[in-house]
Design goal:
The chain is an alpha+beta fold. The chain is built from ten helices and twelve strands. The longest helix has 31 residues. P0 forms a pentameric complex by interaction with dimers of P1 and P2.
Length: 322
């Protein structure tokens, strides 16, 4: 008969396993595990098997092991995990793509009934329609102020009703009614709270950013830097082209006002003296296109003129009545 390990031996084994995982993996997902059953957790482990490892445990043990490992290895970045270990949480060590692993974890959600005293994670709305309950069950609906009517011997809900609001505790009447209607309004699974990647800790919403979104945010940032630089006349790489263009405009304005001569200023002065030259360039292109079509039309007219006219009956020396 195998001897069961003592608590001290279990702690040593757990500490060794956690330290080994910290050495092997540089990416960690901190997940919330409330209302997650053992069978559900086993399914998640199986789905992530290959490039990820799920580790659950007491927060005090995990914090202690992380501190010891950080002292032994000198890698203080692991200490960033300690403030995240609050509540019923676990760690998913992975070498795969963080977004793909997060999406895989989200797949394993299981529907759950509304139990008495449970804090509702979402709003619960009872849809209208036939409930299949006999008229003797109308007392449940009356207590909850749900409008009903009797239709073909069964209770029918007339309008949709917000039964429970997010953050409220589930009462006994609400739980009983949802159970009778066969509604399992809540779903539970591991929820990613934070992401650890090579010492950096960030929100899981960052994983949903696409390349287009990043480019858009970067462009907005560059635009803000450019505007600020121009406003305070501080040169930056983003504002330099605009500053050069504005300076060139100022030089041209001074040249025009002071009769200073330069090739660029002379062109501006010429346009100011004769604004019609602005229209010449715009008309030149359509005129060129039209000039190409004119010779073709003229050649067609000439071809028509050169065609010999058909001889009439009079030219042949007799008339139609001869």
């Amino acid at each position: 008969m195998a001897v069961k390990p003592t608590k001290a031996e279990k702690k040593i084994a757990y500490d060794s396993k956690l330290c080994q995982l910290l050495d092997d993996y540089s990416q960690i997902l901190v997940v919330h595990a409330d209302n997650v059953g053992s069978n559900q957790l086993q399914s998640i482990r199986s789905g992530l098997r290959g490039d990820s490892v799920v580790l659950m445990g007491k927060n005090t043990m995990m914090k202690r092991s992380i501190r010891i490992h950080a002292e032994q290895t000198g890698n203080k970045t692991f200490l960033n995990l300690i403030p995240l270990l609050v509540g019923n949480v676990g760690l998913i060590f992975t070498k795969g793509d963080l977004k793909e692993v997060s999406e895989e974890v989200a797949k394993y959600k299981v529907g759950a009934p509304a139990r008495v005293g449970l804090v509702a994670p979402i709003d619960v709305v009872v849809p209208p329609g036939n409930t299949g309950l006999d008229p003797s069950q109308t007392s449940f609906f009356q207590v909850l102020n749900i409008p009903t009517k009797i239709n073909k011997g069964t209770v029918e809900i007339i309008t949709p009703v917000e039964l429970i609001k997010k953050g409220d505790k589930v009462g006994s009447s609400e739980a009983a009614l949802l159970a009778k209607l066969g509604i399992r309004p809540f779903s539970y699974g591991l929820v990613v709270l934070s992401v650890y990647d090579n010492g950096s800790v960030f929100s899981p919403e960052v994983l949903d950013l696409t390349e287009d979104a990043l480019i858009e945010k970067f462009a907005i940032g560059v635009s803000m830097v450019t505007s600020l630089s121009l406003a305070i006349s501080y040169p930056t790489l983003a504002a330099a082209p605009h500053m050069l263009v504005n300076a060139y405009k100022n030089v041209l304005a001074v040249a025009v006002a002071t009769e200073y001569s330069s090739p660029e200023a002379d062109k501006v002065k010429e346009y100011l003296k004769d604004p019609s030259k602005f229209a010449v360039a715009a008309v030149a292109a359509p005129a060129a296109a039209a000039s190409g079509a004119a010779p073709a039309a003229a050649s067609k007219e000439e071809a028509k003129k050169e065609e010999p006219a058909e001889e009439s009956d009079d030219d042949m020396g007799f008339s139609l009545f001869d």
